[in-house]
Amino acid sequence: MTLVSPAQPDHAYRLVSVDAEPEHVRAAMGRFPSGIAAICAVVDGVRTAIVASSFSAGVSYAPPMVMFSVQKSSTTWPTLRRAARLGVSILGSTQSDACMQLASRSRDRFDGLATTETEAGALLIEEATMWLECEVVSTTPAGDHEIVVLQVHGMGVADDRVPLVYHQRRFHSLHAIA
User: Fold this and answer.
1) Which partner from 6, 11, 72, 122 sits 20 to 30 angstroms from 176, CA to CA?
2) What is the dihedral of CA 173, 100, 59, 82, to 10 degrees?
3) What is the 3-state secondary structure (H, E, C) of the chain?
4) What is the pLDDT of residue 96?
5) Domain count, the chain
6) Domain for residue 17, yes or no?
7) Closest by alpha carbon to 66, among 101, 41, 43, 90?
8) What is the mean pLDDT of each successive set of 10 residues along the chain, which is 178 residues long?
9) CATH code where residue 41 lies
């Protein structure tokens, strides 16, 4: 199928049928830059984490809510979702190694990382650009993922840091505005 832009009749946008091949979809969706959220808590005395590039802020301002999506095949999310409160740390531009470590399935996700635990068990990663203490308010099935909406109960920001950005399967950083 071909869609022709009326503003530029000589330029055609090529649309291809979306098939069951997830790699094609991942590559296309990777064209959209996103921040990286580390979602962490202490559950049954164990520090637990997942990393999400699907994080979205400003879902609601009154009350403040954010959201992310998680794969239904995640083996960590069923544990993490039991936490009374989740810590959401928006990783900073210097934290690409921490991001990979927190996403690892084969090593201690927290080895050498500085963290702070809130009274409610939310776990925050130090050196991030923003921290939120949240509670799960809803989950909605969405294909092979689940959309999770969180209500924000506490927040902090580091004005002197810029976020880590994920775009085209690589990490990038923004430049601070002077």
Assistant:
1) 122
2) -160
3) CEEECCCCCCCEEECCCCCCCHHHHHHHHCCCCEECEEEEEEECCEEEEEEECCCEEEEEECCEEEEEEEECCCCCHHHHCCCCCEEEEECECCCHHHHHHHHCCCCCCCCCCCEEECCCCEEEECCCCEEEEEEEEEEEEECCEEEEEEEEEEEEECCCCCEEEEECCEEEECCCCC
4) 84
5) 1
6) no
7) 90
8) 47 64 72 85 96 92 96 95 97 89 89 95 96 97 96 94 78 68
9) 2.30.110.10
Decide if 85 is inside a domain. Answer: yes
Q: What pLDDT score does 15 carry?
A: 67
Q: Is 27 domain-assigned?
A: no
Q: Is residue 39 part of a domain?
A: yes
How confident is the model at residue 3, as a pLDDT? 41
Nearest Cα neighbor of 155 from 124, 131, 138 is: 131
User: So what's the pLDDT on residue 19?
Assistant: 67
- What is the pLDDT, as a whole number, of residue 110? 94
pTM, rounded to two decimals: 0.85
Strands 170-173 and 164-167 turn out to be antiparallel
Structure tokens at 3: 């869609």
